[in-house]
Amino acid sequence: MRIDVEDLSVDVAGRRLVHDLTLRADSGGLVGLVGPNGSGKSTLLRCVYRALRPAAGAVRLDGADLHAMDARAGARLLAALPQEAGTEFDFTVAEIVALGRLPHQRGSGRAGAADTAVCERALARVGAAHLAGRGFLSLSGGEKQRVLIARALAQEPKVLVLDEPTNHLDIAQQLEVLALVRDSRLTVLTALHDLNLAAVHCDALHVIAEGRIVASGPPYEVLTPELLADVFGVRAHRVRHPVSGAVQLLFDRLPQPAPPASS
Ligand SMILES: Nc1ncnc2c1ncn2[C@@H]1O[C@H](COP(=O)(O)OP(=O)(O)OP(=O)(O)O)[C@@H](O)[C@H]1O
To answer: Is 204 domain-assigned?
Structure first.
């Protein structure tokens, strides 16, 4: 299923945070959003997963306006992993993942054996089957993140919207989660802070600064030293991974202007 974000503007608290932004994620594609802190990535994603309404423009799934769909229909197509997602209540892990089945349940809303099987498979896919009986609040940050990804998978959506899915994960789990997201074959739109992870895993990147896209395209065409200096204020060096041959980015601070000489 294709995602089209068309001329989207988003206002929060009377301030325009996303300006006239257009991007596309093709069916089965993994599209990354990168940009400095506060550039508007989460605001854009919140509008895509319908926590915010557009001030102008639209988000379309295979051409259909997502904000015009009823909540249940939308939730059968799109699952989200918000930043700092969670709950105040100490549900068990199995109960949290079962919430992913709600859009598929009619009538009494009671989960059947088929729903339970979907949830168990989703937990197994993220390597968290052993956590099913644990209280969600007792989990580590990384364990919580995996359970929330399982909830999104249990929703059996066509599209995944992820805001920093590798937050709280150790390096092995970061690679694992991105491989899992890739293997899901869903259309994925994700914000990522780690530019090397983004470059290796995404088909295309959009760089966002001050609520606008400033560069788009295949990762290594986009992440030039000039752009990284301009947008992130860092000096970037491209090196080759000694085993895979993939381009890797190394960073240091841009040379700082010398302080004025004291008299
Ligand atoms: N509810 C709000 N009220 C006021 N300002 C907000 C609100 N939500 C976001 N902002 C501001 O909008 C800007 C964009 O925030 P957003 O969270 O979208 O950025 P981001 O690119 O996701 O940042 P990060 O990489 O730090 O997660 C920031 O300056 C933020 O402080």
So the answer is: no
Asked if residue 146 is part of any domain, the answer here is yes
Number of domains in the chain: 1
Residue 246, CA distances (Å) to 81, 169, 196, 197, 242 in order: 29, 23, 10, 11, 8
What is the C-alpha separation between 147 and 138, in angstroms, rounded? 12
- CA separation for the pair 195, 193 (Å, rounded): 6
- Domain residues for the domain of 132 are 88-155
Q: Check pocket membership of 66 for ligand 1, CB cut-off 6 A.
A: no
How many CB atoms neighbour CB 113 within 10 A? 7
Beta strands in the chain (DSSP E): 3-12, 15-25, 30-34, 56-61, 64-65, 78-81, 159-163, 187-191, 204-209, 212-217, 234-240, 247-253
pLDDT, one tens digit per residue, over 112-121 is 888 889 999 9
Number of the ligand 1 atom closest to the C-alpha atom of 35: 21
In a domain, 126, yes or no: yes
Ligand 1 neighbour 35 (Cβ under 6 A): yes
Report how far ligand 1's centroid is from the alpha carbon of 211 (Å): 10
- Per residue in 36-60, pLDDT (tens digit) is 999 999 999 999 999 999 999 999 9
Q: What is the pTM of this model?
A: 0.91
